Amino acid sequence: MTDFLQMQTTLERQLDAERLATALVERRLAACVQIVGPIQSTYHWKGQIETAEEWLCLIKTRRELYDEVEHAIIELHPYQTPEIIAVPIVTGSEAYLGWVAEETRPP
């Protein structure tokens, strides 16, 4: 099992994505959050097909922090049902993953 995750969520506004990214990094729940966008999302919502412009946040963290990151996203996210998914980082450079580990530990 890997010790690291890349989590992701999408937000409607760039400012909301920036606020979430800053909060996660300040709380040391993420070493890095990359904001990509705008992107176009097409999805089912309440029986309708919707299309929206969104901003994608890619969150680099440790697996053991998943629950805390999920809680922070729910706390800070304006959506009723935010996307929160995680994929394991199967491998990566030792230096980069060491940095992720260091930056997600309390000072």
Verbal overview:
This protein has 107 residues and is α+β, with helices and mostly antiparallel strands. It has one domain: Alpha-Beta Plaits (2-Layer Sandwich). It contains three helices and four strands; from the N terminus they run E-H-E-E-H-E-H. The mean pLDDT is 96.
Please tag this protein with its features.
about 110 residues; 3 helices; 4-stranded antiparallel beta sheet; alpha+beta
Secondary structure layout:
Layout: E1 4-11, H1 14-26, E2 32-45, E3 48-62, H2 66-76, E4 85-88, H3 94-103
Antiparallel strand pairs: 1-3, 1-4, 2-3
Would you tell me the structural class of the helices and strands?
alpha+beta
> Sheet with the most strands?
4 strands, antiparallel
Helix content: 25-40%
CATH topology: Alpha-Beta Plaits
